[in-house]
Amino acid sequence: MLDYSASAQSMRSSEIRRLMKLAADPSVISFSGGMPGTALLPVKIVDELFGALTSREREAALQYGPTSGYPPLIESLSAYLTSRGISLSGQELIITSGGQQAINLVSKVLIDPGDLVVTENPSFIGALAAFMSFQAHLVGVPLDEEGISIPGLQKVFDERLAQIKMLYLNPVFQNPSGVTYSEARKKALLEKLGGRAFCTIEDDPYSELYFDDRDKPLVTPLKAMASPELPICYIGSFAKIFGPGFRLGWLLGPQELVDKCELAKQSMDACSSTLSQVLAHAYLSKGKLPGFLASVRPVYGRKAGIMLKSLADSMPEGVTWTQPRGGFYIWVTLPESMDATRVFNEAIKKQAAFVIGNAFDPYGVKNNCFRLSFAHTPEEKIEQGVKIIAEAIRNTPNR
Ligand SMILES: Cc1ncc(COP(=O)(O)O)c(C=O)c1O
After folding, report:
1. What 3-state DSSP class applies to 210?
2. Closest by CA position to 271, among listed 94, 75, 69, 106
3. Counting Cβ atoms within 10 Å, is residue 293 exposed (0-12), middle (13-18) or buried (19+)?
């Protein structure tokens, strides 16, 4: 047997991968994948944008580019971020290969083995995996329907403030819970963070996907509300507002930290796909984003509505779930005595699937809960899939 690195050994869970493989069978009604509906991908827009590229842009698209990103895209993305209320003054913006790479880069430049990373509980599986690969020690703070628990955070500050390297948050339409921080919670959080020296990652890939235009004020980034001195790394992604296949994201944060991330990126992939960046620039600069968002928001809203109604119609007593106002996810909580892996094993027999809760627990334990994604599943299959899962819950004995 090869002598694997401590980093490789810290990678978790063949069990979750096994379940995900079962969910990938095309005959399964899967609520597992956190990806856009395939029919919603902007195929026509991309075709148009590519057709309209000049020959210089086409050459640039096939060439290496600067590690920090294709300069015209940095410019158009800066304009977009400014329009979201974020000030770029004193900040550095780089393009990354997905939001996932941005999380990895910040982790790489900040985390030494044993350092403390504080996350919401539950939290995004990809971020937890990144932190663990750098051998961070994870501490989860409970999340309620208004956001991360402030007393929970205070407790960690009281007990272990000196060891905290990073706080990781996904405040809008959170993955996996669908929870969005209330304005009051954001303010209380920023007050708690005032003067703290550790880095806060604000991961924000879903905030453009609100179902109702009246909810727009809900999605204001912390980065837009915080004092410029607070070290917040604002991470975004083109995955949900353009297409995951472009593998593009961004990192905006304090200059020195982002410069270090750029150095780290240089040895990883030299630059993100220039072809993707040229297209993303055309997409933003030609004003295609607002129309695209206006076309997908009602579809996701409708899918979420169907799923919520199906849950209300079919779930047994004692089961609760969140009420997302945007994004891709609903979080279901079973009675304490139940185990989501057992429910999964029942549901998959009848060809429905979800992601079990312990995948999102920073401690990898809590499993009386699971994540449903409504984004990718065809509308007409949602009710049937939820019914199968409700039936599976009824047929699953307690632990
Ligand atoms: C909360 C969160 N952050 C980051 C990512 C990664 O995004 P990307 O596809 O841009 O790497 C995802 C993807 O699902 C996500 O849900």
Report:
1. strand
2. 69
3. middle
Terminal CA-CA length for the chain = 36
36 lines ligand 1 (CB under 6 A): no
Res. 158 pLDDT band, cuts 50 70 90: very high
Task: Determine how many CB atoms are found less than 10 A away from the CB of residue 328.
Answer: 28
From start to end of the chain, where are the E strands? 29-30, 91-96, 116-121, 137-144, 147-148, 164-169, 199-203, 232-237, 249-254, 320-321, 329-333, 352-353, 355-356, 369-373
Q: What is the DSSP string of 366-381?
A: --SEEEEE-SSS-HHH
pLDDT for 130 beyond 70: yes
Cβ atoms of residues 208 and 240 within 8 Å: yes
Nearest of 241, 266, 258 to residue 327 by alpha carbon: 241
Name which of 158, 151, 140 is nearest 185 in CA terms. Answer: 151
Instruction: Check pocket membership of 377 for ligand 1, CB cut-off 6 A.
Output: no
Token pair for 118: 């504080």
Residues with Cβ within 8 Å of 191's Cβ and at least 6 positions away in sequence, in order, are none
Percentage of the chain modeled with pLDDT above 70: 98
Q: What is d(CA 331, CA 305) in angstroms, rounded to the nearest whole number?
A: 14
Residue to probe by mutation, ligand 1, list 119, 169, 237, 376, most atoms within 8 Å of CB? 237
For residue 173, the 8-state DSSP code is S
Q: Looking at the predicted structure, is the pLDDT value of residue 245 above 90?
A: yes
Q: What is residue 297's predicted lDDT score, i.e. its pLDDT?
A: 98
Nearest CA, atom 16, ligand 1: 175
What is the pLDDT confidence band of residue 13, given thresholds at 50, 70 and 90?
Answer: low
**Which residue in 181, 285, 205 sits closest to 34, CA to CA?**
205
Q: Which residue's CA is the nearest one to ligand 1's atom 7?
A: 99
What's the token pair of residue 295?
A: 């076309």
Query: Per-residue pLDDT for 399 more than 80?
Result: no
Percent of the chain clearing pLDDT 90 (strictly above): 91
276 lines ligand 1 (CB under 6 A): no
22 three-state secondary structure: helix
